[in-house]
């Protein structure tokens, strides 16, 4: 049984289309913002910093200060 050329090309085209469609299903591309609002951050909320981390950041800023 021989398969005709158009059938082979249709099968290859279908396989290529299926691969392209499935490539859009990657996990890291899911639940991302697709519609944007000007001036508004629509991503996940920032995590709050611990008091210890805030203290370290403040101390680092003081060491970089050039106030004489």
SSE topology:
Blueprint: H1 5-23, H2 51-64
Protein name: Lipoprotein
Organism: Nisaea acidiphila
Give the CA-CA distance, first to last residue: 91 Å
Uncertain parts: none
In total, the number of strands is 0
State the helicity in percent bands. 40-55%
Element order, helices and strands? Answer: HH
Oligomer: single chain
Protein name: Lipoprotein
Organism: Nisaea acidiphila
Structure report:
The protein is mainly alpha-helical. Helices cover 49% and strands 0% of the residues. The protein contains 2 helices and no strands. The chain starts with a helix and ends with a helix. The mean pLDDT is 84.
Index terms:
single chain, 68 residues, 0% strand, Lipoprotein
Put the structure in a nutshell.
With 68 residues, the protein is mainly alpha-helical.
């Amino acid at each position: 049984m021989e398969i005709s050329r158009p059938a082979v090309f249709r099968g290859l085209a279908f396989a290529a289309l299926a691969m392209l469609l499935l490539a859009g299903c990657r996990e890291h591309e899911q639940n991302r913002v697709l519609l944007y609002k000007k001036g508004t951050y629509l991503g996940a909320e920032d995590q709050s910093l611990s008091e210890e981390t805030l203290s370290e950041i403040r101390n680092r800023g003081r060491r970089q200060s050039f106030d004489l």
